[in-house]
Amino acid sequence: MTHAHPLAGRVCLITGASSGIGAHLARRMARAGAQVVLGARRTELTGTIAEDINSAGGKALAVALDVTSESSIAEAFASAESRFGPVDTVVANAGVVRNGRSTDAPEADLRQVYDTNLLGVHLTANAAARAMMAAGSRESEAGRIVIIGSITAQMTGQGDAAYAASKEGVAHLGRQLAREWVRQGINVNTVQPGYIRTELVGDWFDSDGGKAQIAGWHRRRLMEIDALDDLVLFLCSDASAHVTGGTFTVDDGQSL
């Protein structure tokens, strides 16, 4: 039997929630009954999204969050708990990309990619686990952490070496943390999406190179923004009680 609101009662914190997949999932999870905390540096954008959710009858809070700062993450979790109670569900979605050949990449760009995409996920997951264990996750088995990775983790290409390496890093990090917290009632899983038209990829897919890339895929199309909805909601819900340490590819066959 499918529950009409599979995330009812959950407090979900989403990083990178100011645009793209993060913003979309915040709205979708709120419709599924969750109390949603939108974390990002661009609070003017998350504030507007939170207002929209609240106006539609949902429950949302926008918090300033820089995933490369442990203190910023701690403050975001504290604000979430103050408003809604302990966070029991986290979607670690924040990420950046800096394209270009590795030999041309400035050190600052490489550090930003690794600090945001890998260190940021680890810091976010650590804060989530501390909050969940303090709230009794070992007994409730309610802890859920979903990491948003990328199919680039299992591919090779040109111009995205740091991004792809960071995403392979978080896939294995997810397995490591799932093992570490397996007896603490916390499930950790990674979702690896294919290419979706978001702010992260900019206007690449309108260029000749981007169109050629799409033409090379078997189904010759980009995925829609809602492609991850069902899987992410499942992994965040009580229904996924026996699913942890998984890496799930959702790419419409782009990597085949």
Short précis:
This protein is an alpha/beta fold and 256 residues long.
Residues in β-strands, percent: 15-25%
Overall pLDDT confidence = 95
Low-confidence region ranges:
none
Number of strands: 7
CATH structural fold name: Rossmann fold
In the CATH hierarchy, the architecture is 3-Layer(aba) Sandwich
Individual helix count: 8
The SS-based structural class is alpha/beta
- The CATH homologous superfamily is named NAD(P)-binding Rossmann-like Domain
Quickly name the level 1 CATH class. Alpha Beta
Shape descriptor: globular
* Helical fraction: 40-55%
Instruction: Write the element-wise H/E pattern from the N-terminal end onward.
Output: EHEHEHEHHEHEHHE
- Cα-atom Rg, whole angstroms? 18 Å
The major pleated sheet works out as: 7 strands, parallel
Strand adjacency order, main sheet: 3-2-1-4-5-6-7
How many structural domains in the coordinates?
Answer: 1
The N- to C-terminal Cα distance equals 34 Å
What would your notes on this structure say?
- This protein has a single domain, classed as Rossmann fold (3-Layer(aba) Sandwich), CATH 3.40.50.720.
- Helix content is 42%, strand content 15%.
- The protein contains 8 helices and 7 strands, in the order βαβαβαβααβαβααβ.
- The chain has helices at residues 20-31, 43-55, 70-84, 107-134, 137-140, 161-180, 208-215, 229-236, and strands at residues 11-15, 35-40, 59-64, 89-92, 143-148, 186-193, 247-250.
- β2 (35-40), α2 and β3 form a beta-alpha-beta unit.
- The longest helix is centred in the middle third of the chain and has 28 residues, at 107-134.
